[in-house]
Design brief:
It contains 12 helices and 14 strands. The protein has helices at 15-28, 46-54, 66-79, 96-110, 125-136, 154-163, 241-254, 279-295, 298-317, 323-335, 366-369, 382-400; strands spanning 6-10, 31-38, 59-64, 114-116, 141-143, 179-182, 187-190, 220-227, 230-234, 237-238, 259-265, 271-277, 341-348, 351-358.
Length: 401
């Protein structure tokens, strides 16, 4: 790739990407464009600008993508009630196609031939970034330093930073922090004591949620309003997608909601143990299923549940921009036309408790479902033939035995 003259680097300003920036300049002798995305990680991003300037970078992009992230990625994913391997709400996975999209947009704008990222050669993120990039710009070149250099330990990174005068916040000799990833949907933790699956996470590791034991003794009641499968208001106050998720993170985290300790199967083949905080997403999932229970046809709901694990794997494995994910999304979105109404719930010591749901598009018919006098709207005698027809194959098989 000796013909590369300009590279767009996904840049946070942290240790890894600061070292990558210098390494790219030295190894590729090319111009670097930095791109820093605000997707709600809760950190001040302007220091990334000053660090990039200090490194001689002339083209610096810092973009607020919070609304786009929730509206175009998180909300569509939650319309499908998406969870990976029964537990993981895909907080890291769903952010990668957005970042890949903007890396390619900036490459097109600046005339860069390549993009670069700080994902390691052991993880899923390298796959997600690069599959997304190739889907959007087939001829893009990708530089993944972790697959090229020999700086394969934290000590070597620290030595490199010291050798080249790269400022780092953490002093040598202190305990290595967890590897963390944060955005508006979640914060994840890997490494350190978590690398042994038997070790219990340290309580002071958690940042967004209080311990359920320390959560308030009084429950918090919320009323969520849905329109076409998306939350548009909380307690009758209209909110934008990013505002919805930020609010739910705050109130659910304060009630101990959203912690997860998981051993997952990575796409590259290994098992990985991680801990996650997804307070707002945990509430969104439970509430969305509650409003769907009222408004979705039975077979449509069951078909969505059948397809959801496939949809979840597509996102986890990096195929957001694939034709099959887009096809599934069209089906999912069409199912949400009548997913409108309100859900009332309580948050209490780590629990999300549904206490009511209401919709003008409800398929719930009280006159049929009632245990009281149904005034002939449902003939219970009809059930006899229904049962006998469905039992026919069972009776035939039993008679043959």
């Amino acid at each position: 790739m000796s013909d590369i003259k300009k590279v767009v680097l996904a840049y946070s300003g942290g240790l890894d990407t600061s070292i990558i920036l210098k390494w790219l300049q030295d190894e590729y002798q090319c111009e670097i464009v930095t791109f820093t995305a605000d997707i709600g990680q809760g950190e001040e991003l302007e220091p990334a600008r000053s660090k990039a300037k200090a490194a001689g970078i002339k083209e610096i992009y810092i973009e607020d993508l919070r609304e786009e992230f929730v509206q175009d990625y998180v909300f569509p994913m939650f319309r499908a009630n998406t969870i990976y391997e029964g537990e993981y709400l895909l907080g890291t996975s769903i952010a990668r196609p957005l970042i890949a999209k903007h890396l390619i947009d900036i490459a097109n704008k600046t005339g860069a031939e390549a993009i670069s990222h700080g994902a390691t050669g052991k993880g899923n993120d390298q796959v997600r970034f690069e599959l997304g990039a190739y889907a959007l710009k087939p001829d893009i070149k990708v530089i993944a330093p972790w697959r090229e250099w020999d700086l394969n330990s934290r000590q070597k990174l620290l030595d490199y930073a010291e050798q080249h005068g790269i400022p780092i916040e953490m002093k040598r000799g202190k305990k290595s922090p967890y590897s963390m990833d944060a955005n508006l949907l979640h914060i994840s933790y890997e490494g350190d004591v978590l690398e042994e699956p038997w070790n219990e996470p340290e309580e002071d590791m958690w940042r967004w949620t209080v311990s359920p034991q320390a959560a308030p003794e009084q429950s918090t009641t919320l009323e969520l309003e849905f329109s076409k499968g998306d939350i548009v208001a909380i307690n009758e106050q209209k909110m934008s997608p990013a505002e919805v998720l930020a609010y739910l993170n705050k109130v659910a985290g304060a009630n101990g909601v959203g912690r997860l300790d998981l051993v997952e199967n990575r796409y590259v083949g290994m098992k990985s143990r991680g801990c996650y905080e997804t307070p707002g997403g945990t509430v969104m999932l439970k509430a969305h299923r509650a409003i769907e229970s009222l408004t979705l046809d039975r077979e449509v709901a069951h078909l969505k549940d059948d397809l959801m694990p496939r949809y979840a794997s597509l996102i986890y494995n990096g195929y957001w921009w694939s034709p099959e994910r887009k096809l599934l999304q069209e089906m999912i979105d069409s199912s949400q036309i009548n997913v409108n109404g309100k859900v009332r719930l309580k948050l209490y010591k780590g629990n999300v408790i549904i206490t009511g749901r209401s919709s003008a598009d409800s398929l719930f018919d009280t006159s049929i479902a009632t245990f009281e006098d149904d005034a002939g709207s449902y003939n219970q005698k009809d059930a006899e033939g229904f049962i006998k027809l469905n039992a026919l194959r069972l009776r035939i098989a039993a008679s043959k035995r």
